[in-house]
Amino acid sequence: MPLDFSLNSDPVLSVSAPDRAAQLRQDADGLAQGWATARVLRVDQRNRFATDPTGGGRRRIRLEPARDHAESLPGTAVFLGLTEVGQHIWALPVEDLPNDPAVGNLRSCGADLVEGDGSLASQAIALIGWHRDTIRGRDPQHHPRRTDAGWAIEDPFHGGPEYPRTDPAVICLVHDGGRRVLLARQPIWPVGMYSHVAGFVEAGESLEGCVRREVQEEVGVVVDRVRYLGSQPWPFPRSLMVGFHAIGDPDAPIILEDEEISEAAWFDVDEVRAALHGHGALTVAPPVSIAHVMLDSWVAAVDRAV
User: Fold this and answer.
1) Phi then psi for 126, rounded to 5 degrees?
2) Residue 260, exposed/middle/buried by CB under 10 A (0-12, 13-18, 19+)?
3) Where is mean pLDDT largest: 104-113, 132-141, 251-260?
4) What is the pLDDT of residues 10-36, one digit of tens each?
5) Which of 56, 157, 213, 277 shows the greatest Cβ crowding within 10 Å of its Cβ?
6) CB-based burial of residue 276 (10 Å sphere; 0-12 exposed, 13-18 middle, 19+ buried)?
7) Dihedral (Cα; 71, 76, 81, 86), 10-degree rounding
8) Cis peptide before 74 (omega within 30 of 0)
């Protein structure tokens, strides 16, 4: 029987954030009153935010008193939800945060965040980025009006509400049903870094169909037994990464027809296991990514099957 497996842990950014409290988004008066005790997550134009250590190598997003930054609710803030004690949480865009060890982005510190904070940061970055995009290149008088505490806009040209967009993308761990996995690298990545084939879902296409198309387009391999693993938000700027695994033939020729891929090769489980622990010539995706969790889960499944 070909190897089958599931994720052995939830991707960091998929763990549920604090209560989003969507029912409050249209309560303008209640939100304005709640600003007095609210907490703010500041996100700068490089998608960085501040964190504080909690011990054991973990970090927590720094939520600052809202009144430290504005006496009343600013129009640029976006409502994220509620703290455990019922305080409102807002994301507030700023130009630049200081260059400080406590300031980082999801790539650099996401894997170290306490449970749920990665999802909270993803939510904030995605919403702030969406609003940034809606006004890019427009004169101020043509900016859309924000509604629903930043979760919708009314465009002056088109009318009616518009909502944040999410672009689905697939990412697939291709293996031979046993000890080998097919990984590829983009030319812009550091030498030695490889990851899974991934790509955006096209109009009128299923997720499974996208997996088969992307793998064949990028590395020339036909895959079978496409199986769902899990998903993860990736707010750069607005993707949802949907993870799968599938079976491919390691004896089939690798054909690189897509200029996005510069190299692709089959790797043995021992090489991947070493890479996950930072050893060997192979480098893989960091722990904040679903790609890392997929590889770790595959290695564990191979080891159990031995």
Assistant:
1) -65, -45
2) middle
3) 104-113
4) 999 999 878 999 999 999 999 999 999
5) 213
6) middle
7) 0
8) no
Q: Is 119 helix (H, G, I), strand (E, B) or coil?
A: helix
Q: Is the pLDDT at 257 greater than 80, yes or no?
A: no
- Tens of pLDDT, residue by residue over 45-62, are 999 999 999 999 999 999
Give the whole-angstrom CA distance, residue 173 versus residue 293: 11
Q: Which DSSP string corresponds to 131-169?
A: HHHHHTT--GGGPPEEEGGGTEEE-TTT-SEE----EEE
For the chain, the straight-line distance linking the first and the last C-alpha, in angstroms and rounded, comes to 13
For residues 190 and 212, what is the distance between their CA atoms, to the nearest angstrom? 27
Strand pairing category for 180-185 and 145-147: unpaired
Where do the H-state alpha helices sit in 220-286?
A: 269-276
Beta pairing, strands 39-44 & 88-94: parallel
Only one residue has tokens 């300031």, namely 103
Token pair of 196 as six digits: 């899974």
- Helix pair 290-305, 269-276: axis angle to 10 deg: 130
- The separation between CA 28 and the C-alpha centre of its own chain, rounded to angstroms, equals 30
The residues, any chain, with a CB within 8 Å of residue 99's CB and separated by 6 or more, are none
Side-chain-facing half-sphere of 58: CA atoms under 13 Å: 11
Phi, psi (deg, nearest 5) at residue 187: -65, -20
105 band by pLDDT with thresholds 50, 70 and 90:
very high
Q: How far apart are CA 237 and CA 129, in angstroms?
A: 6
Cα separation, 120 vs 61, in Å, equals: 9
